[in-house]
Write a structure and sequence with these properties.
Alpha-Beta Plaits, 8-stranded mixed sheet
Length: 463
């Protein structure tokens, strides 16, 4: 056995089994042609070595990281120009992951953590795209004519530590710059009561506000999202905003035994303590409204006020509403059928419900954040927890100032649930916002109105 530092390239064909089932001979013939005329010659020109191939992919090593990345980008650019006369679901497309690490060479095969990471990066890439680890990006960012998008830290299967990932795609649009306030963020970690590691961060100053977890988070990636970036920036101008990735997703531990309402409350307490928050406000968006209500009822001495946006205190299966139950069952089916698929249609089911007025860029960003934030198994567990939550009894006991805001045309959580929340909380004020989006996005109805309402509210309750 020999061990040495190498750049590892892992690639596989997207939808290989489906393509083979539809046209076995045709796919094999085209694949051999691309190997013979494009892939193998480009790897050879880039001083790479194909270690092994499988039916749908390959592993290759390079002595130069720059050669590996340039090779991958050239192959993907060329592949993107092929088969344009075929329907999208019939085209041969590859995903590529590249990592730099110590590799064990043994009897014509390669092993080691560096190889495992490359394989996980390949799984994160879009069809036709290339994902590289942070160490690779640092080595090539000024030497390769290809713009890589920062996907932040990612939790990947069987790797205990977060891996910072950068992504290139031939269809990529110009990179969106994160708001300046994001430079204040320093990701930290704390442990919840059961030992789960939680990633948290804060931006802004003055009145402390803890944001309860909502449907899938990623405290790094959210800054470059057109859905969340401007919202978080504006919030950080008004308060000290403390955020964390809920257990099971983002930069927090993915492999957790317990995803439940009680654990969410424990996690909120752990983050508040780690951030040094004694008395603070709570920002509950969507499912975070129920968690905020439960936390305030359990720890009234810690909570100054509540701001609840697009939320509810009873989940879809607790409303006695046939349409809500049908939506829940359809959601479970979509996640089970294809959440982990490179085909975004499954996750777009949620995107079109949560932000129906989104531009293509906003919708694609929300869809992508769902994909990289959680596994399909975790998405199902969080969805089930939310569907059966019922915080109405806790809501009736609250005595803290509460502002409930809800978009009139919200499809993910109908405005009737916002009114129900306000009715259950004795101290609540209710504000109807224009628009149909579940999230407040700059340039859409409701965004300016939301901050017009919460600005004075925060000032009134800052002491």
């Amino acid at each position: 056995m020999e061990q040495r530092l190498s750049a590892i390239l892992a690639a596989d064909m997207v939808g290989y089994s489906r393509l083979m089932e539809a046209d076995e001979l045709g796919v094999l013939s085209r694949q051999k042609k691309y190997r013979r005329e494009l892939i193998d010659p480009e790897i050879s020109r880039s001083r790479g070595n194909i270690v092994k191939t499988t039916g749908d992919g390959m592993l290759a090593t390079f002595e130069s990281v720059q050669d590996a990345v340039q090779c991958a980008v050239k192959i993907q650019q060329s592949m993107n120009l092929n088969e344009t006369d075929l329907d999208d679901d019939q085209r041969i497309r590859f995903r590529v992951g590249i990592n730099l690490g110590d590799v064990i060479f043994d009897e014509g095969d390669i092993f080691g953590d560096g190889v495992n990471v490359a394989a996980r990066l390949e799984g994160l890439a879009e069809p036709g795209g290339v994902c590289v680890s942070d160490v690779v990006h640092q080595a090539v960012q000024d030497r390769v004519d290809a713009a890589f998008r920062d996907m932040g830290g990612q939790r990947v299967k069987n790797i205990s530590r977060p891996i910072r990932v950068w992504h290139w795609s031939p269809q990529a649009k110009p990179l969106r710059k994160a708001p300046d306030v994001s430079l204040q963020q320093r990701v930290k970690f704390c442990k919840s009561s059961d030992g789960v590691n939680l990633a948290w961060a804060s931006t802004g100053q003055d009145t402390p506000v803890l944001k309860a977890p909502n449907w899938l988070n990623h405290i790094e990636y959210e800054w470059t999202s057109p859905v969340w970036g401007d919202f978080l920036s504006e919030m950080s101008k008004l308060c000290r905003l403390v955020r964390f990735d809920q257990r099971g997703n983002g930069l927090s531990d993915w492999d957790v035994d317990d995803i439940s309402e009680d654990r969410m409350i424990d996690d909120m307490l752990a983050v508040a303590d780690a951030a040094g928050l004694e008395r603070f406000g709570l920002l509950g968006i969507s499912q975070g409204s129920a968690f905020s209500v439960r936390f305030a009822a359990r720890f009234p001495e810690r909570v100054k006020f509540l701001i609840l946006l697009g939320g509810y205190v009873r989940g879809r299966m607790m409303r006695g509403d046939v349409e809500a139950e049908q939506f829940y069952n359809a959601s479970r089916a979509m996640v089970s059928a294809g959440w982990g698929s490179p085909n975004p249609v499954y996750r777009h089911f949620f995107t079109s419900s949560y932000i129906p007025d989104a531009t293509p860029e906003e919708g694609a960003s929300f869809d992508e954040m769902q994909r990289i934030s959680a596994s399909p198994e975790t998405a199902l567990r969080i969805m089930e927890m939310n569907a059966y939550t019922d915080a109405r009894v806790d809501a009736r006991s609250l005595k803290v100032p509460t502002l409930v805001l809800h978009a009139k045309g919200d499809m993910a959580a109908p405005i009737s649930e916002g009114r129900e929340t306000a009715r259950e909380i004795p101290t609540a004020e209710f504000v109807e916002l224009p628009g149909a989006n579940h999230c407040m996005i700059r340039g859409h109805s409701g965004f300016d109105e939301f901050f017009h309402e919460i600005g004075p509210f925060l000032k009134d309750h800052s002491d």
